[in-house]
Specification:
Layout lengths: L5 E7 L3 H9 L1 H4 L5 E2 L7 E6 L3 E11 L3 E11 L12 E9 L2 E9 L8 H22 L13 H8 L1
Length: 161
């Protein structure tokens, strides 16, 4: 795995299965407007945030309590010259027990500093994983975006344009 790919890690007291269940509840931590299934290998779902970002994702690996992998089938960004920057990227959620806790490592393979969207996407994923997904895992309530409900500073800026 390239160290240039975006990665962030959280550590929680909940079990690997509880972390897995929270990840597959994509509406609970990323976006309330997800359309499609988000829990089984082969499932596909559509994400969109206003007219700023939309993508189609397929679950390519699902190992309960251990790993989930998504493949971006299509992507559109309103705010970049190459509106399809994420297309072909993999998002990997690796779950493992570590010192009596559960570690979740999220990596977007292909999200590299050379991407025009890198800083915005890095900041968004950091918010969604470190705050929203973390809160969903630890309290049962995440902070997903929704219609007219941006969660990150960059979403607020992009929505205002």
């Amino acid at each position: 795995m390239s160290t240039a790919d975006y990665t962030t890690t959280i550590l929680v007291s909940q079990t690997p299965q509880q972390v897995f269940d929270a990840i597959t509840n994509v509406r609970g931590w990323w976006s309330e407007e997800i359309e499609g299934s988000t829990s089984k290998q082969g499932d596909e779902f559509d994400y969109h945030y206003e007219d700023v970002h939309r993508c189609k994702i397929r679950l390519t690996a699902v190992v309960p309590g251990k790993k989930i992998e998504w493949l971006v089938l299509d992507n559109y960004f309103k705010f970049t010259k190459d509106s399809h920057e994420w297309k072909g990227n993999h998002m990997v959620f690796d779950i493992e027990e570590k010192d009596g806790k559960t570690q979740l490592r999220f990596t977007q393979l292909g999200l590299v500093p050379q991407y025009e969207c890198f800083e915005i996407c890095r900041d968004a994923w950091t918010t969604y994983i470190q705050k929203s997904l973390y809160n969903l895992i630890t309290t049962g309530k995440g902070n997903p975006n929704g219609k007219g409900k941006p969660q990150t500073e960059n979403e607020q800026k992009l929505s205002a344009k």
